[in-house]
Amino acid sequence: MTEELHIVGGGMAGSEAAWQAARHGVSVVLHEMRPQRGTFAHKTGNLGEMVCSNSFRSDDDEQNAVGLLHWEMRAADGLVMTTADRHRLPAGGALAVDREPFAEDITGALRAHPNVRVSHEEVTELPDEGQWIFATGPLTSEALGAAIARETGSEALAFFDAIAPIVYAESIDMSQAWMQSRYDKGETEDERRAYLNCPMDRATYEAFVDALLAADKTEFHEGETAGYFDGCLPVEVMAERGRETLRHGPMKPVGLTNPHKPEEKPYAVVQLRRDNALGTLFNIVGFQTKMKYGAQTEVLRMIPGLENARFARLGGIHRNTFLNAPTLLDDRMRLRSRPNIRFAGQITGVEGYVESAAMGLLAGRLAAAEMGGGSLAPVPQDSAHGALVHHITGGAEAKTFQPMNVNFGLFRPLEGLRGGRKGRRERYKAYTDRAKAAWTDWLATQAPAAAAAE
Questions:
Q1: Which residues of the chain are under the pLDDT cut of 70?
Q2: Would you list which residues are annotated within the binding site?
Q3: Crossing angle for the helix pair 79-86 and 12-23, nearest 10 degrees?
Q4: Quick one: angle between helices 65-75 and 424-444, nearest 10?
Q5: Protein fold of 162-319
Q6: Topology classification of domain 4-156+323-444
Q7: Whole-structure pTM value
Q8: Contact at 8 Å (CB) between 168 and 311?
Q9: pLDDT tens digits for range 42-61
Q10: Which residues define the annotated binding site for FAD?
């Protein structure tokens, strides 16, 4: 095969797409404009850099849809999951990683692959010729965004993502805070002590909410509207929705016992999760924010245990651009108006590191098969990958399309199972069993091509 596959964007989706295509014998040019041109959120020129949380969320492949997506990506020799497992940090039932060595490892693996060439220039147009995958994510450059808008005939949809602050561990007062996962979840002692907890009584919580509401916030540019993805709401926006919202969200006090005051139940709890293998950095879980920097330090130091906190990174907010994929993409993730172009990752309207990488995995395999003169069988809708790609390429209502995490609501129902909350465990296990079988069968149809590429 002499034709090259061009992939634009070296985040989770682009990196995974490049890996999958390269392993199937395709020559790949991976275009990543960093470090020649930076972004608000990125700090390095590494591929696969994590700019928000360091968590891939639940790793439970029997009772959680994102955990099932982990399982499917591992079964497909996914680069992102394989690398995440090597740099795993204790996080209860979640999969969290040491972000810097994770990105360095992703970068090293792709640069070392004989079928991959990395190019550091900005792509600003949609090419008329060649095979392309655009995986530019939430920070698509202004020039490329304008080119996409011209081609699709409408302005790109957008919402806003917010980034959580990171705290130096040595600056946390452990005479007030303690280490514990909710309900002591985890198979090892490290997992059961994966989160750092800062308790609040009612008066402290009420004062904290007041401060959040009064804090100086980032203003939007003229013409921008403050639409947010619900899974990444700024903490102050949650507070605006009701004074008890945080207590029933990221600050819920359930499943935790304060060893400093075991007889006193906290009114609310702020949790921090380890952000690196050394345990020197912790990010504040669920505390994405659009507060200005000065206000952030003042408000966050109201949290018991963080009175003297020093911040390795403060929170921020950025625009996230995505396509109305149900109207623009076919079931092979190709742009209907230009079938030589595929899109993958967050720009297609999926949300989250894992979902983005999963769409990259599919785009890379689909492109490789097409370039080899063949065509893969349709991605099975009963798999997690299939449920997600079906949703964004036709299953969702185009008029109300919004970014989506993978969830069991996207799966086709199973007959004969008990509905409601009480039947949920059995139902989810049936979904995951069906998905694993469908995904394994689909991968088996590609095994000869993958083996030949190796």
A1: 1-2, 38-42, 154-161, 219-231, 318-320, 400, 420, 447-454
A2: 9-14
A3: 110
A4: 20
A5: Elongation Factor Tu (Ef-tu); domain 3 (2.40.30)
A6: FAD/NAD(P)-binding domain (3.50.50)
A7: 0.76
A8: yes
A9: 678 799 999 878 999 999 99
A10: 9-14
